[in-house]
Each structure stands twice: as structure tokens, then as C-alpha cells.
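Researcher: I'm preparing a figure for a lab meeting and need a structural model of a single chain. I don't have an experimental structure, so a prediction will have to do for now. The sequence is pasted below. Please return the structure as C-alpha cells so I can convert it later.
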Amino acid sequence: MSGATLAEIAEVLGHKTLAMVKRYSHLTEQHTSKVVARMNERFLS
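Model: Understood. Here is the structure written out cell by cell.
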């Protein structure tokens, strides 16, 4: 939720798969909503 992508986190932590990163990442509903809003603004505007 700090702004890093799952791929960036995987690289830093040495995880070989995104599945492992997802296992330990717990995104809040508020964070997910903000991501969707940013995507809509960027791609639909």
C-alpha cells in the first residue's frame, strides 16, 4: 500500500513468484478503491 507494485516487492524480498507476494500482501478495500480510481482517471479520461 506504500505505492510499490507487487513485482517490485517480489524483487526486493526475493520471491520467485507473484503468488508468494500475494500470499503476504493484504490490501485494504480503501487502497483497492484508490487504485481503481487512478486507473480510471488515467485510461478513461
